[in-house]
Amino acid sequence: MPRVLCRSYTISGRVQGVFFRASTAREATHLKLVGWAKNLPNGDVEVLARGEFGQLADLERWLATGPPMADVDSVEVRPEDTEKFQHLTDFQTG
What we know:
Elements: E1 4-14, H1 20-30, E2 34-39, E3 45-52, H2 53-63, E4 71-79, E5 91-93
Parallel strand pairs: 2-5
Antiparallel strand pairs: 1-3, 1-4, 2-3
C-alpha cells in the first residue's frame, strides 16, 4: 500500500492575479491530491497537498512553473503531519 504524505509549499514571484490557485486546484485534482491553495498577504501563494510521493513530486514540478501567466521565483517545500490533515477529502482554493 502506498504511503500517504503531506507537504506545504510557499510559491513566490508573480503568482497572484494569474489564476495560480485555480490552476493549482485543477492540477492537484488531476493528480488525485487533496488540500488547498490560498493567497498570502505578502503576495505569495500557499499550497498544502496530501497524497502519494509520486503525486506530490509531480505537483512540485508543476508549481515550479505554474500557469502560463505566472512567473515563479521560488518554491519552498516543508513536510507536514499527514495525520493532522487526514480529514481532507478534496482540493479547494481560499
